[in-house]
């Protein structure tokens, strides 16, 4: 990882500005009503929100660029309407949804989640979206379905990064069925009260907050219920570095860097990384009895 060495004086000035409230405030969140009776799934992270500016200008979306600051500009004209999502495989009722059907059919709620990238930076993002479980229930997985496989749009004319041969496009990801059905797992359609921008995975992306960010696949067009564990783009690219589970784990390092701490975008000092990214209470039981060093 690259390190930026700021002169000490600059660090002190920045710290003073932050202490005096001079640092850029988080853009106020437009509230989306949580449906009555929906339990608050996680601690309220509203005080820690990363700014809209940072969330939408520091992105990993290799289909456009490997330069995080270049993605927003390159993705500006990406066509996200019309957009269809095919849901099939081992289900009783395969369906194709237009993005407008998904917005109409599934109540959108706000979920403020931490996002921890495998590269050891993090953010706190106020997503809007809906629980993936509701969509999966609508298609009725059969008893043979054990895993869920997700696929991003394949369109090298719009996504120049897909012309590069070193990855197996389209970007693909997977979850175990119980992970996909977990209440924390959502399909996001917006953030900060606004429709999702292309750089964040418009019009529809997965968000799995207890796993490294690469599991949260963007701009999806296909979901398949399958019997075997799917191979993701990152598992194919570097099987020794990226596993299927990718649960945030400060005690299992990436072969090339430590995962013990992280840099929260917008902050100067590093903070400790939390097991399961702070969601252990909700999800640790999914992995009871598993050796998480082996199943990384
Ligand atoms: N999805 C696709 N299709 N392509 C990508 O390159 N990058 C992943 C994930 N989803 C990626 C993707 C990685 S590594 C991270 S950390 C998050 O998206 C970043 O999401 P953000 O840019 O909205 O913060």
Listed once per kind, the bound small molecules are:
ligand MTE
Q: Kindly report the average pLDDT value.
A: 89
The H-and-E topology, N to C, reads as HHHEEHEEHEEHEEEEHEEH
- Name of the CATH architecture: Alpha-Beta Complex
Number of strand segments? 12
Percent range of helical residues: 10-25%
Instruction: Give the overall silhouette.
Output: globular
Total of DSSP H or I helical runs spanning 4+ residues? 8
Query: Which regions contain 5 or more consecutive residues with pLDDT less than 50?
Result: 1-39
Distance between the termini: 21 Å
Broad CATH class: Alpha Beta
| CATH superfamily caption | Oxidoreductase, molybdopterin-binding domain
Task: Give the structural class.
Answer: alpha+beta
Binned strand content? 15-25%
Radius of gyration: 19 Å
| CATH topology category name | Sulfite Oxidase, Chain A, domain 2
Q: The biggest beta sheet, please?
A: 7 strands, mixed
Number of domains: 1
């Amino acid at each position: 990882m690259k390190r930026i060495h700021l002169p000490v004086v600059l660090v002190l000035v920045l710290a003073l500005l932050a202490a005096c409230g001079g640092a850029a405030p988080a853009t106020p969140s437009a509230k989306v009503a949580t449906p009555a009776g929906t339990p608050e799934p996680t601690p309220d992270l509203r005080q820690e929100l990363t700014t809209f500016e940072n969330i939408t200008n520091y992105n990993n979306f290799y289909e456009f660029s490997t330069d995080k600051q270049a993605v927003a500009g390159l993705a500006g004209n990406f066509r996200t309407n019309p957009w269809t999502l095919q849901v099939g495989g081992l289900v009783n009722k395969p369906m194709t949804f237009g993005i407008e059907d998904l917005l109409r059919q599934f109540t959108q709620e706000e979920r403020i989640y931490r996002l921890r990238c495998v590269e050891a930076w993090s953010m706190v993002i106020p997503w809007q979206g809906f629980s993936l479980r509701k969509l999966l229930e609508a298609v009725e997985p059969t008893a043979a379905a054990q895993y869920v496989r997700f696929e991003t749009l394949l369109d090298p004319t719009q996504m120049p990064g897909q012309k590069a041969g070193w990855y197996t496009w389209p970007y693909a990801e997977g979850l175990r069925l119980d992970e996909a059905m977990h209440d924390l797992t959502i399909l996001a359609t917006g953030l900060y009260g606004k429709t999702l921008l292309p750089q964040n995975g418009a019009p529809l992306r997965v968000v799995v907050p207890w796993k490294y960010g690469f599991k949260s696949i963007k701009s999806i067009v296909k979901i398949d219920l399958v019997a075997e564990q799917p191979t993701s783009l990152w598992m194919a690219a570097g099987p020794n570095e990226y596993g299927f589970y990718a649960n945030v784990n400060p005690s299992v390092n990436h072969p090339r860097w430590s995962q013990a701490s992280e840099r929260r975008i917008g902050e100067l000092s590093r903070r400790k990384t939390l097991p399961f990214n702070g969601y252990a209470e909700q999800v640790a039981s999914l992995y009871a009895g598993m050796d998480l060093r082996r199943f990384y």
